[in-house]
Design brief:
Number of helices: 6
Radius of gyration: 39 Å
Structural class: alpha+beta
Distance between the termini: 71 Å
Shape: rod-shaped
Largest sheet: 3 strands, antiparallel
Helix content: 40-55%
Number of strands: 3
């Protein structure tokens, strides 16, 4: 479940970077003061009156507006640095206080079944006889 959420989050962030770097054009067609059509990434459709009028009168009645939305050209990668001024004593206290002490008990229980090697006397040390 955690890996699925991580993958979905990565895809969303990648799409966000992709959309922020793209450029868009918005084309709008006005007939007088009335907005007739607005289109994204394509040309706006003209009104019927614009299609039937002669070419010299088109400029006085109808108007086309093109708005370009520029994306980012340069992405700035920065590393987030956090400076938390937490004293060392508070950190150690919180680790000791909130730490699960069962972990330490489990480690001690593992040594119950350990058989130490048998103790044997070293005769050379007892008699202090050494070969020189």
């Amino acid at each position: 479940m955690k890996s699925l959420i991580s993958k979905i989050g990565s895809i969303v962030i990648a799409l966000l970077v992709l959309v922020s770097t793209m450029s868009f054009t918005i084309d709008a067609h006005y007939c007088g003061n009335i907005l007739v059509d607005k289109a994204i990434l394509s040309k706006a459709q003209t009104c019927e009156m614009h299609q039937h009028m002669p070419s010299e009168k088109e400029s006085s009645c109808c108007d086309n507006e093109v708005e370009t939305i520029e994306g980012q050209d340069i992405l700035q990668f920065s590393k987030a640095e956090f400076d938390l001024d937490i004293p060392l004593e508070f950190t150690v206290f919180s680790l000791i206080y909130f730490c699960d002490l069962d972990v330490f008990e489990k480690q001690i229980d593992e040594f119950q079944f350990y058989n130490p090697p048998q103790y044997s006397l070293d005769l050379q040390l007892l008699n202090q006889v050494f070969l020189i």
